Amino acid sequence: MSDSTTTVQTDRHAHAHPPGLQHHFTNMTQQFEAAKLGMWLFLVTEVLLFGGLFVGYGIMHSKHPEAFVAAHHHLDWRLGALNTIVLLLSSFTMVMGVWAAQTGQRKKLIAFLLLTVFLALVFMGVKYVEYSHKFHEGLLPGKFYSHQGDTVPGQFMFFSFYFMMTGLHGIHVLLGIVAILWITFRAWRGHFSAQYYGPVDITGLYWHLVDLIWIYLFPLMYLIS
Amino acid sequence: MNWFRDFLLPKSAASNTGDVDGLFMFITWLTVFFFFFNGGLIWYAVRKWRRRSNDDITPHITHDTKLEIIWSVIPLIVVMFIFFWGFRGYVRAWVVPNDALEIVVTGKKWVWEFEYPDGSRSLNDLHVPLNKPVKLVMHSEDVIHSFFVPAFRIKRDVIPGRYTELWFTATEPGVHQVYCTEYCGKGHSDMLARIFADTPEQYEVFLREGDEQVRKMPLKELGKLVYENKGCATCHSIDGTRGQGPSLKAIYGQQITDAAGKSHTIDANYIRESILNPQASVVAGYEPIMPTFQGLLREREILGMIEYIKSLQ
Amino acid sequence: MADAMTPTAAHGHPDYLSENKGLWNWLTTVDHKRIGLMYLWSVTAFMIIGGLLALVIRLELLTPRQTIMSAELYNRAFTLHGAIMTFLVIIPAIPAILGNFALPLLLGAKDVAFPRLNLASLYVYWIGAAMAVSTLLLGGVDTGWTFYTPYSTTTGGGVSMMVLAAFVLGFSSIFTGLNFIATTHKLRAPGMGWFQLPLFVWGMYSTAIIQILATPVLGITLLLLVMERVFHIGIFDPQLGGDPVLFQHFFWFYSHPAVYIMILPAMAVMSEVIPTFSKKSIFGYKAIAFSSVAIALLGFLVWAHHMFVAGMSLFAGAIFSFLTFFIAIPSAIKVFNWIATMWRGSIDLKVPMLYAINFLLIFTIGGLTGLFLASLSTDVHLHDTYFVVSHFHYVMAGSNMLALLAGLHYWWPKMYGRMYNNTLATIACTLIFIGFNATFLPQFVMGSRGMPRRYYNYLEQFQTMHVASTIGSWILAAGLFLALATLLASLRKPKDAVPNPWNGRTFEWEAGSPPITHNFEHTPVCIYSPYDYREHPVPIAEEEKSAH
After folding, report:
1. What's the CATH code of the domain at C522?
2. Testing the interface with C: which of A32, A41, A165, A171 to mutate, by most C Cβ within 10 A?
3. How many beta carbons lie within 10 A of that of residue C148, not counting itself?
4. Is residue C219 situated within a structural domain?
5. Residue C7 falls within a domain, yes or no?
6. Nearest-CA residue of chain C relative to A163?
7. Interface of B with C in 279-298 (CB under 8 A)
8. How much is the CA Rg of chain C, to the nearest whole Å?
9. C399-411 confidence digits (pLDDT tens)
10. Residue C457: closest CA among chain B residues belongs to which residue?
11. DSSP state letters, chain B
12. pTM to 2 decimals?
């Protein structure tokens, strides 16, 4: 195409940018949609990352069913259930946070975000209790497994997966806490408005995925029969 | 065009290779044809429609559905044909004949060990009878290896923790090269073996006297090999400790009493009898649990055993 | 650089090379063009390292026994060659260099959707590269770039570090892919529908799908491998109740699609270069676009064709062979489409076009030899021999490298605003063609005659062909060196390139050579099809009207 066919549409200095709009986007909608699409794609990679572990777990479970069933009795399903409820609640508070952002209610936004962080910390606290119990009993992955008095051999493999999967999930929770705190800070500084709340929205998406993965992990680890 | 096939492929030495070679050559000619076909079209186009000036006018052709269907469907038919041809060969190579001679193959860094139906073993040299199906039952003691015989067009991975199978019928007498084709470390490229496809007479000799390696080995060494490989060591120590059976240390020429109270001198004949008919005179104080080795040891191996025991003073 | 002499754009904005000079400005840039160039020189550096390793390997293979190094060293050399060339050179080459540079320009965008993520991908690449190179200090890695268990879980050296490096590099690849998908969806120029996308974009988009879907699985596989080495978790170790072949399934689930991460971008470059230098519309736009997507998706269903001799069931072998043959069709369609594009065109044998023709010939060989390996009975004979080595070098190394060079010579005036010496570049292209075939054609024959891959010692019957191959590698190296030197030499002269030196029809040729930082003085609007070479192009809107 030659220059003659090019029409002047938007000169890059022709109009003032709204706050939060990056130079290479035309308008806020475009930027928001791009960010949201990017986050969805990222979530796809996350699902596949965990997916690999789920497949590995499934194959090893079918190879050693007795060991997996015997090993899961060392877990306390009540703590797992508690954590499931805590994470579901935190997803709810996150949704409320996004709603507060969309409607431009800064104080409510900050409150809901902090509440979400609090619930995430509760989750990590329960996880800490569970982990320290496992460490104490020698229920550790691979060669570090030193639990005494097993009647079914091969239980170390269950704990290999238990620690890898809950550990990777735990890292995601921690990263989520950091991300939400950063968003809270930006909210406190007044960066967001009913026109610009994209970062809150996509952080929320991420947080829901973290929750979703736990919903699959819980029965897989705590409720095998 | 046989010279071309002989240039590209090693000389075939087993049944079932004809099919593989036929397909190989078919795809080869297909490749040669399409290379020159595409190359020819490009050459023609460049010759005929080379740019004369920047103002050249070209026709505006965006697509041609009929042509595109033709050049999609023809390759599809060709590749499906190749698929079925290749699949047929794979199935043939998969189904082992019932009367196959079974040989256990163990791969380990970086040797191949073969165990024959009579229990004898050899390293890196495998003797098989000509024109008789042979089945290899393979496993690995350490990492993954792969058993490849180019002249037979066969290959299969040898995996720790599971058995894989391979079979062939050698049709050409002589020595055929075996390679390890799954990378296994420092000695990977030296993990070679040879398959000796023996005529009936040669195979007879092999069965009776073992392979060349065994035939040339001094008796004492052969005895040591037998002691280690045939499981003697599980019950009979060579350092004087008492096991399930008496130790072999310094027993040659000694007097023993058997369970029935008869006394014997340990000499060549006693050792021979104890190997072939172990229940005949069990040393007092031991259970009569030793199995017979009748048919599992060659004559020369028994002589080797005697020499070896003699040497354990 | 004589910037004072260069024509700047009408509005007086300096070009992206002249604005904000200095190392720090480059290291903190979010400009996709600068990131593309930094990728170019990083990848080139690793290509030189990987290439030197290849020369050393070929030299060792000059004689059947030890020539210049021990077996241990040889095993480390080919592992490092494979790992560097795969993870640091071929996978990032076209997407991260040409994609980063050209994709936003082709779309008429100012940048990619997430410029900071783009810069992050470069830093992640550098970190991964440093980790990969650091394995040299940890005693090297001798597993082969495929890291097969249980060898990789039992051998010493820096295996864990190399595996983590590949894991980290995966993120770099994911970031690039994610950016390209979002950019293609959201930042197209006004008026540009999906079927007005230049085919380069379709190729990058298909590549990005694979990067997004396959790389995480490799990531988790590599993590499992590290866990196995450190904790003995048991999943791949037969002694602990695991399955070593499971690793191969996991590994190839990524690494086979990764082969298409290497070839789809190469095809993408072809679809730009060939119409431009034939001065003719691309033949079968939709067929090419959809066959890219088809290759990307089918690529996920064929991984186990690497394992026909690994103890798979008969049924599984048949399925995977069958599916593998299907992937041959879209590849064949593309080749015919490109030749048809040249047909009745006005063919200008400039250097990018010579590389494109070179690609067509090499890719034809590479693609057709794939049929031997897709077919079950012939694969049994050829698996893990030099035939395979040669086949994947034709496809991954040869085709990818030639396409990269075609694209580099095509967009070089846009990147640096300078033309290179046409004669020298033509000689380089010829040397590369001769050298490549001299190196790898003998390897096909060696392989079908039974020469296994990754062999340090070999039987004397193979020496003639090894010698031929080694001599070929010297010619190839000379050609590549000449190509690089010719491009570098052009940088010493003032900027002399016009905005549209090849009479291309896509948006990047409307921007300056080199473009300004934000690419276009005015946002371009898509009115004509990107491949409309008629004397009087017909607007898309009218064409669609007449079609109904």
Report:
1. 1.20.210.10
2. A41
3. 23
4. yes
5. no
6. C233
7. none
8. 23
9. 999 999 999 999 9
10. B189
11. -HHHHHHHSPPP-BTTHHHHHHHHHHHHHHHHHHHHHHHHHHHHHHHHSB---TT---------HHHHHHHHHHHHHHHHHHHHHHHHHHHHHHS--TTPEEEEEEEETTEEEEE-TTS-EEESEEEEETTSEEEEEEEESSS-EEEEEGGGTEEEEE-BTS-EEEEEEB-S-EEEEEEE-S--STTGGG--EEEEEE-HHHHHHHHHH--HHHHHS-HHHHHHHHHHHTTGGGT--SSS---SS---TT-TT-EEEBTTS-EEE--HHHHHHHHHSTTTTPBTTS-S-PPP-TTTS-HHHHHHHHHHHHH--
12. 0.90
Q: Is residue C18 part of a domain?
A: no
Domains and CATH numbers, chain B: 2-46+63-94 (1.10.287), 101-210 (2.60.40.420), 217-311 (1.10.760.10)
Within 1-40 of B, beta carbons closer than 8 Å to C belong to: 7-10, 19-20, 23-24, 27, 30-31, 34-35, 38-39
Query: Contact C190/C138 with Cβ under 8 angstroms?
Result: no
Half-sphere exposure for A107 (CA within 13 Å, toward CB):
0
Checking phi first, is residue B96 left (phi over 0); if not, alpha (psi -120 to 50) or beta?
beta
pLDDT for residue B310 is more than 70: yes
- Chain C: closest CA distance from residue B192 (Å): 10
Residues C117/C178, Cβ–Cβ less than 8 Å:
yes
Read off the pLDDT of residues C251-289 as tens digits, 9 standing for 90 and up.
998 889 988 999 999 999 999 999 999 999 999 999 999
Chain C nearest CA to B29, separation (Å): 10
Q: Is residue C393 part of a domain?
A: yes
In chain C, the number of structural domains is 1
Confidence check: pLDDT of B209 > 80: no
Can you tell me the distance from the alpha carbon of C113 to that of A35, in angstroms, rounded to the nearest whole number? 8
Higher pLDDT, A8 or B139: B139
Maximum distance among all Cα pairs of chain A, rounded to whole angstroms: 84
CB–CB of B90 and C318 under 8 A?
yes
Residue B152 φ/ψ region, left for φ over 0, alpha for ψ in the -120 to 50 degree band, beta for the rest: alpha
Helix, strand, or coil (residue C523): coil
DSSP C519: B
CA angle, C59 then C393 then C47, to 5°:
65
Q: Using CB atoms, which chains have 3+ pairs under 8 A with B?
A: C
Query: Which residue of chain C has the CA closest to B75?
Result: C329
Cα separation of A36 and A203, whole Å? Answer: 10
d(CA B186, CA B188): 6
Report how far residue C306's alpha carbon sits from residue C379's, in angstroms, rounded to the nearest whole number.
9
Q: How many whole angstroms separate alpha carbon B57 and alpha carbon C110?
A: 33
First to last CA, chain B: 68
Contact C118, C112 (CB under 8 A): yes
Domain that holds residue C279: 33-547
C29-43 confidence digits (pLDDT tens):
999 999 999 999 999
On chain C, the residues whose CB falls within 8 A of the CB of A17 are none
Q: Which residue has the tokens 């008796």?
A: B219
Separation of alpha carbons A49 and C170, rounded Å: 12
Q: Which residue of A has its CA nearest to C241?
A: A154
All domains of chain A in start order, with CATH: 51-222 (1.20.120.80)
B 70-99 → C contacts, CB under 8 A: 71-72, 75-76, 79-80, 82-83, 85-94
Higher per-residue pLDDT: B119 or B78: B78
Residue C474 corresponds to which tokens in the numbers above?
A: 């010297």
Give the number of other Cβ atoms within 10 Å of residue C274's Cβ.
Answer: 28
Evaluate the CA torsion angle A154, A155, A158, A159 in order and state its sign. negative
Instruction: Name the strands in the sheet holding B174-180, side by side, starting at the edge strand that comes first in the sequence.
Output: B125-129, B193-198, B174-180, B145-149, B154-158
Closest CA to C476 of C443, C433, C442, C444: C433
